[in-house]
Amino acid sequence: MIKVGDTLPEVSFAQLTADGMKNPTTSEVFAGKKVVLFAVPGAFTPTCSAAHLPGYIALADQIKAKGVDTIVCTAVNDAFVMKAWADSQNAEEITFLADGGGSFHKAIGLTMETADFGGLRSQRYAMIVDNGVVTLLNVEPPKTFEVSKAETILAAL
After folding, report:
1. Top-level EC class, please (predicted)?
2. In the chain, at which end, N or C, are there fewer CB atoms within 10 A of the end residue's CB?
3. Rg (Cα) of the chain, in Å, rounded?
4. Cα distance between residue 153 and residue 136, in whole Å
5. What is the mean pLDDT of residues 13-37?
6. pLDDT class for 145, splitting at 50, 70, 90?
7. Per the residue annotation, which of 43, 48, 53, 86 is the catalytic one?
8. What is the pTM of this model?
9. Domain spanning 15-156: which superfamily?
């Protein structure tokens, strides 16, 4: 599993924008920037939609005021699902990056297998990344939601 001090691996994400499908790479997203990255097991799932994403939307201005350039949400979902979820949550403050095949999450060692519930998914976590290097990593134990909350990350900034 990735740890504090490690550099994020180079992968491509999928992002559906007003200009069509984009495939930003890790270096394009993180190089020269301070980024808060949080991951959810799945778009539209209960905790993710009711608490995790809404917390980051509500605190986006305060997080960015601490020197964060971008807040990124990722999941092992396709770009169409991520865009629909972003739109349904009015989440203009957040950048949504789809990891449809799980290549990013496999590379950082933060996947979980949910079998018939959805197959390969991301674990729930949040990290602070400075110029591609992980400076904080908070991974949730199964069935918990504490250390990856927006409030926890804001306090750590």
Report:
1. oxidoreductase
2. N
3. 14
4. 9
5. 97
6. very high
7. 48
8. 0.96
9. Glutaredoxin (3.40.30.10)
Burial 24-42, CB ≥16 within 10 A → b, else e: bebeebbeeebbbbbbbbb
Instruction: Parse the chain into domains and list their residue ranges.
Output: 15-156
* N-terminal to C-terminal alpha carbon distance within the chain: 23
* DSSP output for 74-143: EESS-HHHHHHHHHHTT-TTSEEEE-TT-HHHHHHT-EEE-GGGTSEEEPPEEEEEETTEEEEEEEPPTT
Report pLDDT digits (tens) over 42-80: 999 889 899 999 999 999 999 999 999 999 999 999 999
Reply yes or no on whether 73 is catalytic: no
Six-digit token pair at 23? Answer: 């495939």
Q: Which residue has the tokens 């976590």?
A: 125
Please report, rounded to a whole number, the percentage of residues in the chain having pLDDT higher than 90.
90
- Is residue 72 a contact partner of residue 35, using CB atoms and an 8 Å limit? yes
Closest CA to 95 of 16, 31, 21, 148: 16
